[in-house]
Amino acid sequence: MKVNAITLRSGNVIDYNGKLWAVVKNDIQQPGKGASVAQVELRDIRSGSKDNVRFRTQETVERVRLEQEDYQFLFSDGEDYTFMHQETFEQIVINKELIGQSAAYLVEGMIVEIETFEGEPLSVKLPDTVTVEIVEAEPVVKGQTATTSYKPAILANGEKVMVPPHIESGTRIVVKSEDGTYVERAKD
Questions:
Q1: How far apart are CA 51 and CA 28, in angstroms?
Q2: Residue-by-residue pLDDT tens, the chain, 188 positions
Q3: d(CA 53, CA 55)
Q4: Among the listed residues 165, 118, 127, the one whose alpha carbon sits nearest the alpha carbon of residue 20
Q5: β-bridge partners, 44
Q6: What whole-number distance in Å separates Cα of residue 170 and Cα of residue 128?
Q7: What would you report as the CA-atom Rg of the chain, rounded to the nearest whole angstrom?
Q8: For residue 162, what are the CA distances in angstroms to 13, 113, 146, 186?
Q9: The pLDDT of residue 46
Q10: How many CB atoms lie under 10 A from the CB of residue 14?
Q11: 3-class DSSP state for residue 134?
């Protein structure tokens, strides 16, 4: 669907120069004289490279509609991860590179949102937070206060995370799936 460049918002996906680009930022600039322009920061969906493009405000671009559907994570086989569509039960295999660092937080049976364009998977979105058990945590150093310092801990999936001093081995915690940062102690 054709839209004016001035109406682009963060998160929109456009077809520009034969590639799919996600809009990261859009800024309308009004120079002292002449027409306004839309300064748009774009990220190539497939390669991840970024580009800044300047559009005239009356210029139109092709906005693309992506499909988001829920899939259940079944299993991983090395670098390949297998998911099953929740309604059609079709299975899809996605490479770890496409999932990114959040692949470490995938658990069998987890429901994720896979974004596709014409049947080609473009991204996998995990739930915002996941609950993981700590298998190893350093002991509390006497004199440390909970407000100023965190200590390293190792999660059941092998990832390292910084946690408050009161968290010990065997504790289940909630972490952000996108960057693996500590959120809170899990409520059991």
A1: 16
A2: 888 888 888 878 889 988 888 888 888 888 888 888 888 898 888 887 889 999 887 889 998 888 999 999 999 998 899 999 999 999 999 988 888 888 889 989 999 999 888 888 888 889 999 999 999 988 776 665 555 678 899 999 889 999 988 888 899 999 998 888 999 988 86
A3: 6
A4: 118
A5: 21
A6: 22
A7: 22
A8: 35, 27, 12, 15
A9: 80
A10: 19
A11: strand
Half-sphere exposure of 100 (CA within 13 A, CB side): 14
As given in the structure block, the two tokens for residue 171 are 């504790």
Condensed to tens digits (0 to 9), the pLDDT of residues 83-100 reads 999 999 999 999 888 888
Three-state SS for 30? coil
Please, what is the Cα angle at 183 between 181 and 188, to 5 degrees? 125
Q: To which H or E segment does residue 37 belong?
A: strand 37-44
Rounded CA-CA distance 152/161 in Å is 6
Query: DSSP code of 108?
Result: T
Q: How far is CA 69 from CA 21, 38, 66, 158, in A?
A: 20, 32, 10, 29
User: Which residue bears the tokens 């065997």?
Assistant: 170
Please check whether residue 174 is in contact with residue 184, taking contact to mean a CB–CB distance below 8 angstroms. yes
Alpha-carbon span 83 to 89, nearest angstrom: 9
H-run or E-run covering 98: helix 96-99
